[in-house]
Design a protein that fits this description.
- The protein is mainly β.
- The protein has two domains: 121 residues, Jelly Rolls (Sandwich), CATH 2.60.120; 127 residues, Jelly Rolls, CATH 2.60.120.10.
- Strand 7 and strand 8 form a beta hairpin.
Length: 278
């Protein structure tokens, strides 16, 4: 049995967030230390009950086990899961059926299944980024490789946001998880600007492929009360429904975006006019 490490994050309202200093913002919205050898690290959030986690099997396989806040016997008893591999080659075993995941491949696992995570090479272990939300029905397991994801090439070097967007969940059925990845081209550093919010869904970003000592300045908060958190490689940040979520790096980078809430419409967002940002 794999005993996961876990912590909980309670929902924060916009007035409370506006009064927070740097340390308080980081304690409430920033998630570090996701990937540790032979550990499952989970953050249970009270934003649409999203669980954000990381698992890096090295010497042993890792079983995904329930944590106390779930109140269930198994992890996926009443949940669905998406795992994205950002490391070396690995496998996700779903109720005894093995699925190979290369770098940037994703797998969806529906309610009621058991999950085991395995690396193929301990010298180059897989790093499974885990996202889970409550489910109301069981959808079938679906593997989505990075080459099979819907790709959108947007932006330009002139606006410092030339990027490729990979929509992982565009072609599969989920209860509420919407997940994809954005990769910025060399010379581009901005993401999600102009900004938007979506009151129907929370969102979480995982920044990765960010070489030391580069950082991303991630912007959050109500459009009229913005704040920032400085992000290093392989760190995640929570975005409540009332908050913008945007970033500017000191180099190019990639990030995985994930949402949960009332709908699975990727385009359902409320644009924020640039002149209203403060």
């Amino acid at each position: 049995m794999t005993i996961p490490n876990f912590s909980s994050r309670h929902a924060i309202d916009p007035l409370a967030a506006a009064a927070m200093g740097t340390d308080e913002l980081r304690r409430n919205f920033h998630i570090a230390g996701l990937f540790a050898s032979d550990r499952v690290n989970l953050t249970y959030t009270h934003y649409d009950r999203m669980v954000v986690g990381g698992a890096m099997p090295v010497e042993t396989e890792l079983t995904l086990e329930a944590i106390k806040p779930m109140g269930t016997k198994t992890f996926l008893e009443r949940r669905e899961l998406i795992a994205v591999n950002i490391g070396g080659p690995g496998r996700v075993v779903v109720s005894s059926e093995s699925h190979a995941l290369g770098a940037r491949d994703m797998i969806y696992v529906g309610m009621g299944q058991d999950v085991v995570l395995v690396s193929d090479d301990r010298a180059n272990p897989a790093k499974f980024y885990l996202l889970s939300a409550p489910a109301h029905r069981a959808f079938p397991t679906a593997l989505m490789t990075i080459s099979g994801a819907k790709r959108l090439d947007l932006g330009s070097l002139e606006t410092s946001n030339e990027r490729s967007i990979f929509q992982f969940t565009n072609g599969i059925e989920t209860c509420q998880l919407v997940v994809g990845m954005t990769e910025l081209k060399k010379g581009s550093v901005w993401n999600t600007m102009p900004a938007h919010i979506h009151d129907r869904r929370m969102e979480v970003y995982l920044y990765f492929d960010l070489p030391e000592p580069a950082r991303v300045f991630h912007f959050l908060g109500e459009p009229s009360e913005t704040r920032h958190i400085v992000m290093a490689n392989e760190e995640a940040v929570l975005s409540p429904v009332w908050s913008i979520h945007s970033g500017c790096g000191t180099s190019n980078y990639a990030f995985i975006w994930a949402m949960a809430g009332d709908n699975v419409d990727y385009t359902d967002a409320d644009p924020v006019p640039m002149e209203t940002l403060r």
